[in-house]
Here is the input.
Amino acid sequence: MICVEIGVDGAVYAVTPQPADVSVCGMVIVSADSVMNTPWALTPEQGSQIGASILLVWAVAFSFRMIVRALSTVDSEEKTT
Here is the structure.
């Protein structure tokens, strides 16, 4: 995290030297390094891979369900005998 302040010209400037505790800063900007280390920071490609994996698991589960249903059905004529 980077402690910053807004100058009189409206630009954002990093405070030098950076304080040890960012809680004393008026404004804090999160650096890209700290954001990319979180498990939820995904690229669109990674997100689509996870979504495709979930859909594949659902498709396999649905296929198993249909196979089990097809194997467990009994004709109405077989029930009467």
Notes: The two ends are 77 Å apart (CA to CA). DSSP finds three helices and three strands in the chain. Residues 44-72 form the longest helix (29 residues). The mean pLDDT is 80.
